[in-house]
Write a structure and sequence with these properties.
Largest sheet of chain B: none
Shape of chain B: extended
Oligomer: heterodimer
Largest sheet of chain A: 5 strands, mixed
Number of strands of chain A: 10
Radius of gyration of chain A: 26 Å
Number of helices of chain A: 9
Strand content of chain B: under 5%
Number of strands of chain B: 0
Order of helices and strands of chain B: HHHHH
Number of helices of chain B: 5
Helix content of chain A: 40-55%
Structural class of chain A: alpha+beta
Strand content of chain A: 5-15%
Structural class of chain B: mainly alpha
CATH class of the largest domain in chain A: Mainly Alpha
Amino acid sequence: MRGVVPREAEFTSRLRSAAVAARVGSWLGVCFAIAFVTGLISHYAQVPDQPIPFPTAPSWGYRLTQGLHVATGSAAVPLLLVKLWTVYPKLFAPLPRPSRRGVLTMLERGSIGVLVASAVFQLATGLANAAQWYPWAFSFRTAHFAVAWIAIGALLVHVAVKLPVIRAAWGSDVDSVGQDRPSATRSGAVSRRTLLRGTWIAAAAAVVTTAGATVPLLRKVSVFAVRTGEGPQGVPINRTAQAAGVTADDVDRSYLLQVVGPGGTVSLTRDELAGLRQRTRDLPIACVEGWSAGATWSGVPIRDLLDLVEAPRGSDVLVVSLQRRGHYGRTVLQGNFADHPSTLLALTINGEQLSVDHGYPARIIAPNRPGVLQTKWVTRLEVMT
Amino acid sequence: MRGRLALGAVGVVVAGYGVWLLVSRSSTDQLRSVVTWLVGGVVVHDAVLAPLVLVAGWLALRPLPAWVRGPVACGALVLGTLTVLAVPVLGGWGRRGDNPTLLDRDYVAGWWVVALVVLAGVVVGCLVVRSRTTGGHHGARSGRR
């Protein structure tokens, strides 16, 4: 008996071919590219000090890009698994002899190792994060962002190395054996076309069964969506008051909103806020984890509050929450968002007073903005100079 | 060739930036955890998942008659990959008592629905292949061209 580790030559199926790998890999590359770009958009949206202001329009932009981020990541799961299946024999290819060419081969195989490790890492951590499951010791945001760059870099190297193979594969019939490994001589259990068809169905099914968290039309069929879209007052909750350490005492009658600016400090009770000019807007709340929901919000335009303290237009505003636990207790509302007529200090949601889990007494709602920056339990707005 | 070299060089710089980001923004413990997950993912795939699929394919697919194989393989591919995708929600480890709006479905029931839909698809696929191939001598291939 030869041991359990197979040799490359023992994989004889014609299914494990560059013709299949290039086709699946190309779509996988497209998914990773979209996920990378939409991920960068989300990270940039969360940079407090933006050289180029993040746009306030369209109001559904963040919802769309982050829905795409999670959808392409989900579609990538079947694509990556099939891709790795087709190239699995290469894992057992004999190591090259020491030579100049051998060194290049080893470098190339090393880059594949980096690509596979970072790709699996991105999909695994992204899916776990969407389900708010954190079985690790690192910061998800830092690691997922850094490894994204590693994955895309390794992908570029891989495309550079394989470009002739990819071109030849797309340029010839899927059943062409021109680029097959010498040992891949037996027809597989199914045809290549069948394998590819199954892969596309699986990728589409991955999107349909998860995207209901952000596409209302799919809610009924998205059996693996992290949220049904239901929740108190018609909107799901990302973090409850309890999880954020906000207590009943914080939000009782003693609550005051302080607005601090060049013209001094203005303190307002919730009743006084409700007595100011109210504005109503339909805006989505969209989370980086790929779920979103639309709602009708009403409250005081932030710009009206800034006018009370004579804040010049374009001023960034520091938003301070009552929350005691977790990140995003102090966020920056950039000048272009603060001045936008749809940016509100919301007091109601879908016609009802905000529940405490939705941010009672008052919360920020702004167009095209990451959910984590739609700060709840706002107690202080401070004009930054 | 020059274009490919340039592309590869850009890739090395981009990946290098990622490594720098990771190292400069993580503590030693965090870094150790990242490396564990990077290596762990490869090990779980290459040493556990892939061999399991290999053995399952060999045991389950080869003995089947040719006209059943295509639909069964596609069904297994769809259900298998969707199951991997659904591991975090099936496990429900992220559930929190204070937030009933998160992971608010019966995901195990959802998995059975998916399994039944896939099974129905496999049966229909088999019938289609069967009806196409009756009378022909070359199995599923006879219908093409």
